[in-house]
Design a protein that fits this description.
Elements (H helix, E strand, L loop, with lengths): L7 H20 L5 H30 L5 E13 L5 E7 L6 E5 L8 E18 L2 E19 L2 H71 L7 H27 L11 E4 H15 L6 E6 L4 E4 L1 H17 L6 E8 L2 E8 L33 H11 L3 E7 L3 E9 L2
Parallel strand pairs: 7-9
Antiparallel strand pairs: 1-2, 1-3, 1-5, 4-5, 6-8, 9-10, 10-12, 11-12
Helix pairs in contact: 1-2, 3-4, 6-7
The protein binds adenosine-5'-triphosphate and magnesium ion.
The site of magnesium ion has 5 residues, from helix 6.
């Protein structure tokens, strides 16, 4: 069956026609301005139910899934001359004070303005005045505003955004959880590191006292002329003494090389960088037993640097010693020095190299690379830790680049000022 209900356009035409004829009555002096307004309101009230019903039917066809109310508000009605200059204002209001023309009833505060329109028309009409048919024309400016209201729009928006909201909250919780976990792990790590340091410091201190007693006792034993000892016993006492000295050295090494950068008290002096590096490298070269190690230098600079010679030498030597310890046959060490923004020394070798994943732990206390090839190389894993602390005490940085089986480069940078 065909839908016989009128369309919204037809209803709009109806009240517009009524309105135009009311203005014509006013124009020809038959009614007042107030009468136009009250009559059009009355007329529209009479057709409003039909209008709303028709509107709801059209809305249903669109299947938007929620209740959408609509109304039209009048803001200005002005009669003007043919070029648009206002001649007579029938109604004029601030936008929010307009009157309800047609559609659903809801307050201005509850509606949202969706559009405004200006209807400009010139209307010609006839009236019989003194038995004479006369033709009049007037120009009209009719300004309206369309407003919409969605019942419970907050709930609708919330429902549509629920999944997005849940995902956002989950991501937020996840990030928060991860952050919490990271901070917790960091604190735990710090605690473990502190415990490790305290333990090492305490145990080494405690070991020193019995060791020095032992050392004194062996010395007394050796120098006591009243005890006649066999050659074998003499050898045993010597072995005890040697091992005792070795143990003391090891403990001293752990104690000294465990210092943090805040504990290192520098005694800086100005030194000529080239002379200084040349001396270290020459001394180091002399100390090497193997003659097959080649050391190349590239130190052109002569500028002065401000360092603690004692500590800085330890740092450089630790790296050089490592190059030899973890070198291969035909070992070649290259030392370069440069001045850029910082004083920069790099030491490269063509040794066994370090796996990429180990690099970030290299400067940790007691860290040694778990590589089978170097298991027979002795060490405490303190050399690079200490080197890094010395560099940090000088407000510098140390970096390492390495490729397995190709070699390693350490670069120390110290700011010039
Ligand atoms: N030039 C290098 N080539 C290859 N591996 C290296 C090199 N330098 C350091 N390493 C690796 O880094 C680890 C840490 O070096 P670090 O100098 O801190 O300790 P160490 O040499 O083992 O002991 P020590 O405390 O006696 O110096 C070493 O065990 C070694 O595995
Ligand atoms: Mg070392």
């Amino acid at each position: 069956m065909d839908d016989l209900s009128p369309s919204l356009d037809t209803i709009n035409d109806l009240w517009q026609e009524k309105f135009l004829s009311l203005v014509a009555d006013y124009f020809s002096g038959q009614i007042t301005k107030e009468k136009i307004l009250s009559n059009i309101k009355e007329y529209n009230n009479s057709i409003n139910d039909l209008y709303i019903e028709t509107y709801q039917k059209e809305l249903k066809k669109k299947e938007i899934g929620y209740d959408l109310k609509f109304n039209k508000i009048v803001n200005t009605i002005i009669i003007s001359d043919s070029i648009g200059n206002a001649r007579d204002t029938i109604f004029n209001s601030k936008p929010k004070k307009g009157f309800h023309l047609i559609g659903d009833k809801f307050t201005i505060e509850n509606g949202h303005k969706v559009s405004s329109s200006l209807w400009l028309t010139d209307h010609t009409f006839k009236r019989i005045i003194n038995d004479e048919s006369k033709s009049f024309t007037y120009n009209l400016q009719f300004e309206t505003e369309d407003r919409m209201n969605i019942d419970g729009w907050e709930r609708i928006v919330l429902r549509r955004m629920a999944s997005l909201l849940i995902i956002s909250i989950s991501i937020f919780l996840l990030v928060f959880g991860l952050l919490f976990y990271a901070i917790k792990s960091f604190i735990t790590q710090k605690k473990i590191a502190d415990i490790k340091t305290d333990f090492v410091n305490n145990i080494t201190h405690e070991l020193k006292t019995p060791l020095s007693t032992l050392s004194l006792a062996t010395k007394m034993l050796k120098s006591d002329k009243n005890i006649s000892v066999s050659e074998n016993s003499k050898n045993i006492v010597n072995t005890i003494e040697r091992q005792n000295v070795r143990l003391q050295k090891l403990i001293d090494q752990v104690l000294n090389n465990s210092l943090g950068y805040q504990e290192i008290k520098l005694n800086k002096e100005t030194v000529n960088s080239k002379e200084y590096l040349d001396t270290i490298i020459n001394d180091f070269q002399i100390s090497l037993e193997s003659k097959s190690i080649q050391i190349d230098k590239n130190i052109q600079i002569k500028q002065n640097i401000n360092i603690d010679k004692f500590y800085f030498t330890t740092a450089i030597l630790n790296i050089l010693e490592n190059s030899v310890k973890y070198g291969k046959e035909n070992l070649k060490i290259i030392i370069k020095a440069n001045y850029g923004k910082d004083f920069e020394v790099s030491i490269s070798d063509n040794g066994i190299g370090i796996p990429k994943k180990e690099l970030k732990f290299l400067f940790d206390k007691f860290y040694r690379v778990g590589n089978k090839e170097i298991h027979n190389v002795k060490g405490l894993g303190l050399g690079l830790y200490y080197t890094n602390q010395i560099v940090r005490a000088h407000h510098g940085t140390i970096e390492v680049i390495s490729e397995l089986n190709k070699g390693t480069t350490f670069t120390i940078k110290i700011p010039l000022q």
